[in-house]
Structures are given as C-alpha cells and as structure tokens.
Amino acid sequence: xxxxxxxxxxxxxxxxxxxxxxxxxxxxxxxxxxxxTSEQLAIHGAKVYLACRTESKAKAAIxxxxxRTPSLKGQGRLMWxxxxxxxxxxxxxAAEEFLSKEKRxxxxxxxxxxxxxxxxxxxxxxxxxxxxxxxxxxxxxTALLPLLKETARRPDADVRIIVxxxxxxx
Length: 170
What we know:
Layout: H1 2-5, H2 12-15, E1 23-27, H3 32-43, E2 47-52, H4 55-68, E3 78-82, H5 88-101, E4 107-110, H6 128-152, E5 160-163
Parallel strand pairs: 1-2, 1-4, 2-3, 4-5
C-alpha cells in the first residue's frame, strides 16, 4: 500500500531514455495523453508521427509543442499522419502512407479513442465506438506489424506496441 501514500518518483525529464533515431507513431496525438506523450518522446530525440483525423488540430498540436520546446522547431521530428480510425480504409491508407515514408517503427502507441456516446454508424456501417476503439487500431496495427517485426530484428531495437485505455466513470 506504499503507492497510496508515497509521492510518485517518475520524472519524464529523467526517466525517458535517449530516443534519438527512433521512430514512433501515436494515434490521437493532438490532445490529452497522446499530445503529452508525443511531446515527451520528441523532446527525448524521437521522430514522432502524430496520427490524427484533422490536419488543423494536428498542426496546432505540433506548433504548440514547438512553442513550448523551441529546440524542436525545424527539426522534422514532429510529423502529421492523416488517420481517421472510424474508417478501416483510412486506417489502412494511413499505414500505407507511413510505410512509404519510413524504414523503421520502434513504438506504436494506440492511444486514440471515442467515449461512449450516441449510437452512430461509421462510414462502413460499424458502430462508431467499436470502429474507433477497436477495428481501426486493429487494421492499423496489423498493417504495420511487418515493419515492427523487421525493426525488432535490428541490434539497436526495443520495439513496443502500447495500447492506452482511458475511461470515464459516471
């Protein structure tokens, strides 16, 4: 029970290793946990793809990170990758675009999500929360898996797939 009464000792400035040369893709990176994660990974040297639906929000997120950390400006380490997880076609297209640009993928962070809301169907006829929270990430991850496996064979590799799950208690 010590964790309940002790102060957390994790400090990203100290505890995230040097990520220079690593390539990371974060879904839902324009706000919240995805934005903060992307920022810290870029600060520590990684090239980070912010996989988001809306170009304006993604570019605003990148500008915000660069404003808070001016040393990242012009480094080409923060990139927008168009991704709408409600569409399996968009998820596949995003993976194909990423694969056309990169020869490695060290970390895939499946962070984006949709909170429970009204029953709405995706463009492909799937309930929207299921499409965004499950199927879109499945298609993206499956399409990127060969590159993740290839990267894992490198001597400098430490490949990860991270799934972030947030929920709201009401």
